[in-house]
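Figure caption, in words: inputs first, then the predicted bound structure.
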Amino acid sequence: MEIPVTVRFPTDTSLDPGTAPETVERLGELYSDLDRLDLQPLWTQNKQLLSRAPRPKAVPWMWRRVDMIPLAARCAELITISRGGDRRVLALANPGLDGRPFITSTLWAAIQYLGAHESAPAHRHSPGAIRFVLEGEGTFTTVNGDACDMRAGDLVLTPPWHWHDHKNESDAPMTWFDGLDLPLVNHLDATFFEEYPAEAMQPVRGHNLSEQIYRAPGTVPAVASSGVSVYSPLLVYRFADTEQALRSLARDSGAAMVSLEYVNPLSGASVMPTLGCHASRLAPGQRTVTERQVGSQVFVAFRGSGTTVIDGRSFDWGPGDIFVAPSWAAVDHEASTESYLFRVTDAPVLKALGLSRHTVEGRNQDVLGKFVGHAEAP
Ligand code: GTQ
Ligand code: FE2
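Bound structure (2,5-dihydroxybenzoic acid present):
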């Protein structure tokens, strides 16, 4: 069936009411001929294609720990981790994205749950991943043979095409946050995936090997300059270090919020070319300035509690809650107790492409409503 041209191309705004009927008819024929030959006019759709500012389909949203953990535990009762399914992962699906399992157009965010003495088999893929541990210990993620022990507040990297598996050797379940560049890599038609051959798990060379080389502050291997890679060779960042640095920063600055970026110790660049990771400490009772930036931001509340306003709506968060600010959303925070927020973004991509933009509003945005969750429509 032929799609009517008037549906394919919205009203031609250049057409004024006095146009002769003969011209209208000729225009109709012209649009049909264009359509038939897969040619499309820009003038009927330029406003959508070249919007004055980004118009992300993703909406500001939040997923609460109290909702997610019990559901993940129910999954663990009913669904075993097998070679086929590979991972017990629940994706945070943004309600603005038509049911796709993505938190924004560029980022994947999920919680992953491993029961006591469970493991998830080795595989590798071209999308890069980061893990931020929400609670528990006794689990390690092995990345190309380097078993990275995971404890609450630690950041663990799984760079592109590195073999990785997860193993919980403890008597308690373990939950962490996964951030991946998967939607972006899919958009770029650059996704590859491979299962580890033979055995499910890869051999472990040792524990925390990258940490032993790269964690010492201020020194890096002298030979490394020739082999600086685009992702960080340090695969794990400990919360104790993050916390200490943030505390010291806060003491010096007195600001409502201090932040640090996790970086590649060899280059100072973001941990991966596609993913940037930050940690912030919020002082209680002080609202931060309202800012906008191009790109997607996913926040993980780790410790403390507070309120973040995103595009005029307030999101009240506590430990383990995860919320998202789409590109160019107005964002500010106010903690009610000393708080730590982890954040993953696609900022390195925008920077590399010359598309970064950031503004600080002259005054705080108005709060027009409060996020209540799935009771409301997006
Ligand atoms: O743990 O390897 O959330 O491959 C999505 C894809 C986690 C993982 C995710 C993955 C993983
Ligand atoms: Fe994976």
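The two ends are 34 Å apart (CA to CA).
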